[in-house]
Specification:
Layout: H1 11-77, H2 80-100, H3 114-127, H4 135-153, H5 157-168, H6 179-208, H7 211-224, H8 229-257
Length: 258
């Protein structure tokens, strides 16, 4: 019986196979890192909305009473310095009000389902710009990645499924070329993916170090101890509001008596 002849892979083909396997692993890691980054951003944005609704609105009220108090003082003092201080206090009050009543304050809590996370991870692997083969492909992938990120942040599983289905049926998913060109392409993709993983790590580190992220971390730790940190902050600010309001009422009453 004639033995089957098995063609041996060339060194280039072996290297290509190894690099493709390495790329697949890195693409999976990159998808996980992108998921971690987009989740962190969404969680921080949602926490900011919660903070503004529960605490920011009270800071806005405190700044309003401070502005009234300083304006009352400026009215009686009549000096340029007092009027300047009053203008600054009023500007701060307006800024606080705008922040506490802006769009960010309306952002709902972010609680992604396991299915949503899985869909995002798969979509990120399939469309990530750093796995592009050329500039045209990169531009297409960047557009798709924005859609993927937006859908994830909005909790839109249907859009993620549609994007994945479109990719599966796209003519671009069918590719073929020589071993040498494929190897060069894969090596470039590996470099791009590694660079992006490094960039994500830096961005996550920077985001985690922001004041808002640090406050969220403290709130999460407090919740583990059955404490509501934002409620504690709100109680403290209400006390300050009452104190400033009392000062204003006392001075106003004193001014009217004069």
């Amino acid at each position: 019986m004639a033995s089957e002849i098995v063609r041996q892979l060339t060194p280039e083909e072996e290297e290509l196979a190894a690099k493709r396997e390495e790329l697949a692993l890195l693409e999976a890691e990159l998808a996980d890192r992108e998921l971690a980054l987009v989740s962190l951003k969404a969680e921080i944005t949602a926490f900011e909305g919660l903070y503004l609704r529960r605490v920011g609105i009270l800071y806005a009220e405190l700044d309003e009473w401070n502005a009234r108090l300083v304006e009352l003082h400026a009215e009686h003092a009549g000096t340029l310095a007092a009027r300047t201080e009053a203008a600054e206090a009023r500007s701060q009050a307006q800024e606080s009000y705008s922040a506490a009543h802006g769009e960010t304050a309306e952002v709902p809590p972010f609680t992604p389902s396991p299915e949503l996370r899985s869909l995002y991870r798969e979509a990120a692997k399939r469309v990530h710009p750093d796995t592009a083969t050329d500039e045209k492909d990169r531009a297409r992938r960047e557009r798709l990645m924005k859609e993927v990120n937006s859908a994830y942040a909005a909790g839109d599983e249907d859009t993620l499924r549609r994007i994945l289905a479109d990719i599966e049926n796209s003519p671009d998913s069918v590719q073929g070329s020589g071993v040498g060109a494929d190897l060069v392409r894969v090596l470039r993709q590996l470099k791009q993916v590694r660079n992006r993983i490094t960039a994500i790590a830096l961005e996550i580190s920077q985001l985690s170090g922001t004041d808002l992220a640090q406050l969220k971390s403290k709130a999460d730790l407090a919740a583990e101890e059955d404490r509501d940190l934002l409620a504690e902050m709100a109680t403290s600010i209400r006390g300050r509001i009452n104190a400033v309001r009392q000062q204003f009422e006392d001075r106003f009453a004193g001014g009217t008596k004069e």
